[in-house]
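Student: I would love a firmer grasp of how sequence relates to backbone shape in proteins. I am handing you a single protein, as its sequence and its fold in token form. I am told such tokens are a discrete way to write the fold. I hope you can help me see how the letters and the tokens relate. Take your time, and here it is.
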Amino acid sequence: MSGIAKTPKPPYYAVIFSNQRTEGDYGYGKMAVKMVELASQQQGFLGVESVRDDELGITVSYWDSLDAIQCWKENTAHKIAQDKGKTEWYKNFALRISKVERDNYFEM
């Protein structure tokens, strides 16, 4: 999960997941990798960007439609990860869905 996602010409959607972790890994790292691999196989997935420091994690995934986002939300393995997030991994989190209507990309 490194680098800037190469997204298509808008419009498309961004799911912004901001969170603060609990202490300890409890399988979080392995599951995070698995979720990116699984999401990337979902129809409508466009890319992902993720950063984490000691205090805050932010993951932005990009999708071609609200239907694709809903399908990802309902994915069985993703639901298991969501439940573990609520019971073991996160002190708190916020999930926001936005429609991207304009973007710019620069590369040197």
